[in-house]
Amino acid sequence: MSLQDLYQEIILDxxxxxxxxxxxxxxxxxxxxxxxxxxxxxxxxxxxxxxxxEDLKFSGHGCAISTASASMMxxxxxxxxxxxxxxxxxxxxxxxxxDGDHGDMGELGxxxxxxxxxxxxxxxxxxWHALKSAVTTGGKVTTE
Length: 144
What we know:
Helix content is 44%, strand content 22%. With 144 residues, the chain is α+β, with helices and mostly antiparallel strands. It has one domain (3-136): Sufe protein. Chain: A (Alpha-Beta Complex), CATH 3.90.1010.10. It is globular. The N and C termini lie far apart (37 Å).
C-alpha cells in the first residue's frame, strides 16, 4: 500500500465513521461553522474544566474531508489544555496553507494534500475555525 493509498483510507474511514460525532451534554462552549462554497456545516460542542478540554463532539454535515478533519481534531484535542489546542489550530492552519516543514502532524498529515486545492482547504479547516471560535468568542464562523 502506498502512502497516498494509506492517507486516502484514513480520510475515508473518518469520513464514513466519524469519531465523537453527536451531541455533547453538558457542554460549556459552542460554535457553528459554515462553508458557503460547498455547504459544509459543523456544530462544535466543547466541555472545558480547569483550562482543559474534557470532551468535545461535533454534529452537522459535510464532505469526507470536512468530516474526517473534524473527527481527527476531536480525537487529538481531548485532554489538551485550551492553550495547547489553540497552538494546534494555528499549526494545522499553517500546514494546510503554507509550504514547508510543519513537524509531525500524526494522522492529520493525511490532509496535507488538500493544500494543492485551495477550495478544499476550507473544508479541512472548518472545524478548526469553529474550535477557535468556541473557546475564544463563541458564535458562528464562516470560511469566507
